[in-house]
Amino acid sequence: MLDLMAEQVRLEERMASLGVEKYRASHQANLAARAATDSRSVATALDSAVEPVAQAIEAFRAEASSGRAGRRHSAFRAIEGLDAEAVAFISLKLVLDGIVRDHTLTALALRVGGYIETEQRLHAFEEKSRDTVRATLRNLDGRTSHGEHRRKVLSHMLNVGDDGWTAWTTRDKAIVGIKLIELIATATGLIEIETLKIKRRPVAMVSMTDRFKTWLDQLNLQSEIMFPEFLPCVVPPKDWSGLTGGGYYSDAFAYPLRLVKTRSRKHMRLLKDADLSMVFKAVNAIQRTPWAVNTRVLEVAEALMKQGSGAAGLPADVLPLPTKPLDIDTNEEARKAWRRLAAITYETNTSLKSRRVQAFKTLAVATEFSTYDAIYFPYQLDFRGRIYAVASGLNPQGTDLSKGLLQFSSGDPITRPDQLRWFLIHGANCFGVDKVSFDERVAWTAENRDRILSCAKAPLDDLWWTEADSPFCFLAWAFEYLEMGWPLQRETPFVSRLPIAMDGSCNGLQHYSAMLLDPVAGRAVNEMVADVAPALGLMPSADVIDGVVPPFGGGRAVDDNFVDVAHKSGPRGALLRDNPSLIDLTAAERWNGTLPTTMVPGSATPFVNVGK
Prior knowledge:
The structure is a single chain. By secondary structure, the protein is mostly helical. The protein folds into four domains: 1-16 and 234-387, Helix Hairpins, CATH 1.10.287.260; 33-223, DNA-directed RNA polymerase, N-terminal domain (T7 RNA polymerase, domain 1, Orthogonal Bundle); 411-496, Helix Hairpins, CATH 1.10.287.280; 507-590, no CATH class. It is 53% helix and 6% strand. The protein is built from 24 helices and nine strands. The strands form four sheets. It has a three-stranded antiparallel β-sheet. It has a two-stranded antiparallel ribbon with strand order 4-7. It is elongated.
């Protein structure tokens, strides 16, 4: 018999080693792509070096502007007017990105000087075309972080904008670049410039100092162990009883899991002094829920991923680059059109590759854990207090694929009409039929019964289910719908293992409308008894038609339906139902005694409508 606790410990040790392997592979890929600062270790070095380099730049400026003679003071004019921290960051990033191998001082200086020239051109152009620059930067921020591509796009914008810039000479770029590299070397000690003989000729080279190499090795070791690849558990996760130490059992992780993900020390101090007993109870209850992999959904998802067609929201195979026109060397319009199409293809493929990696990871985890009768997910809170599963890839709060791959380890029998009703409503919701009444959703499942059963019987032949809003959740439901048997003539109750999802409508406004007992907002966010769920902002309202939007809690009388929904149980609910006037008293108790200093026309004033 498998010792599940021993298996869990082995899993946790593997999670730690997977994190190390993932970091090392990512770090090596960044070095090979001359993007070393994308690695946490080098990024840490960059962050720590920006301030001293910026100070060195300011000191250089002060010295150069004093009129005293000095080495490469002509570089002063090139960086005049630019923010010292921006110049420091650009220079450091360029130097550190290629730090994996030595560079000739001249080549690196020309690269740094070229970027500083673009920055200076932007600085000058922005003064007369601020909106154009900002729009281009926003567009780039949403598309790429590749430095060279960004520089080319910005240079094109400047050329099209006819900024009247006089291009720097190669000598100008070299002088600026060399000066900034020298400032980095003296201010940080990260790099050094040394003259080596290459093919019997002296060549100035830029390389890492031994001190920086040692520090970088330490940073890499620290970074490797900071991010384990968290997986599900095969035993109920360890209960939370404090701010650390819950979820996982072993000491395989260098840093114990935190209950709350926050970097704020003040936040942590407040949490230490708070009574979190109810939070512990809630998180522990969620963690103890046993799940299992839905192997039927897994089989279909794996087959579709192999096809690479992009069905059911899965990422398709990468697209081939467009064929180059035969006259691309002589036809400028054709060349521009091809480059635009190639750029779109490249961006699309970059997204597809990332999504395919994530999808394959989800399927790999599901396959590994499909052999267990029950699996569990540790949970923690973000800084806002929202509860999230720790494991990435496969978890009940993940993508549609992730959710569809999971079902409860043990189910509950459907023995009452209301249970069957909610089961059917869930199917309609998953397909996207969720803006009509509940009765219409139930009717939709009956009207489409044959198609649903066809998909469940042969999901790779009848792909109608892939048109659903949540295709894999719908497929999981369709499998159970088929298994239930139609027409319903069962000797024993059908046992469902599906999680029936319920979602809030504008949760923040739901809280406000409930606290303020506001029937208008309550109706808009589905806190009122209604056959059809309204869309917020699309509610028919005489006040809105007349051009006046009613304020939250604007003194409106609260009807019995809302009281029944907002206070539907317990002594307080009964008291409010029997004594509606107490609602006015509740409103008065919440008033802080201060009248507003400014008023919006038509807005609510404390007690204006109390008692009406």
